[in-house]
Write a structure and sequence with these properties.
Number of helices: 11
Strand order of the largest sheet: 10-9-11-12-13-15-16
Distance between the termini: 36 Å
Oligomer: single chain
Largest sheet: 7 strands, mixed
Number of domains: 2
CATH superfamily of the largest domain: Response regulator
CATH topology of the largest domain: Rossmann fold
CATH class of the largest domain: Alpha Beta
CATH architecture of the largest domain: 3-Layer(aba) Sandwich
Structural class: alpha/beta
Strand content: 15-25%
Amino acid sequence: MKKKVVSVVLAAAMTTTLVAGCGSTGSADTAADTSAEAAEDTEATDTADTTEAATGDTIKVAVVKQMDHASLDEIANAVEEELDTIAAKNGVTIEYETYSGQGDQSVLNQIGTQVVSEDVDVIIPIATLAAQVMANCAEETQTPVVYAAISDPDAAELTGIDYVTGTSDALNTDFIMDMMFKQNPDVQKVGLLYSLSEANSTKPIADAKAYLDEKGIAYEEKTASTNDEVITAASALVADGVDAVFTPTDNVIMAAELAIYETFADAGIPHYTGADSFVRNGAFATCGVNYTDLGHKTADLAYEAVTAGMADMDDYYLMDGGIITVNTETAATLGIDYSAFNDIGEVVEVTTTEE
């Protein structure tokens, strides 16, 4: 399987080794297998093998979020919504249950062991650690694993596995850096805020450093693993006098965005991030993947994996980003005129929501 780029009309713009350890209803009907009629004393003619859910069967889906926060919740909600749509459109019964790993690998292992033992037809893990754990738990049974929002599937070692595919939200870090300097060409020091435990952050942070090194711009790194540490790290970046802050699609930082966005805004420091969900929680701006579209695509792939099999599916499907999302309330607090972004992309305006 190879990666495939998926182009979508977006409503808003946006790894490590495998880990040890391991709804809603609609009525079923799928395309029947095609086989040749064998007449007496004649040879059988063409046959076609098609994987299908037999009439009356129920498709069982486990949706596993790595943790609870706005980005992953948005994806999970979109997956559920699309599964309901698929059930109604195709006259099939789809039962799903959504779990949260609470950011804890042992909890994810327990969930993976449970859903595999319950013989679900497909597992949809959301975020890198969840995908790695589910792939490991499903290895013996070869239960299809169709992940969502993996920034670097190759580095996460989630490619080349027959029963694993999914969607990637790989970030265009250079473009977000371009946005930063388009808005303020005089930036002298950039804060890089991320978690060392987040595989999603590894490549974008390396890309950001390379970009800044090439421009001769100083940067200050702060890392955190808990909400309290994120708050402390944000305050430290303010004290360090950074002119702007960049955070990629980092789940640890996302979970704390509502607790830090005012710290940056009140200090006049724009926070550029890897997903529109950050911006809806108070960050200044992003350009990336729309997670509702990503969730819909992931659900479609999961249905395809169950009903048609995975032999012809790609290793992963790269979602296409491109729309700039700006929080107008945060921009007002910062005193920023973001009209400069109109020259480089389509701008979507949002306000802060505590979800």
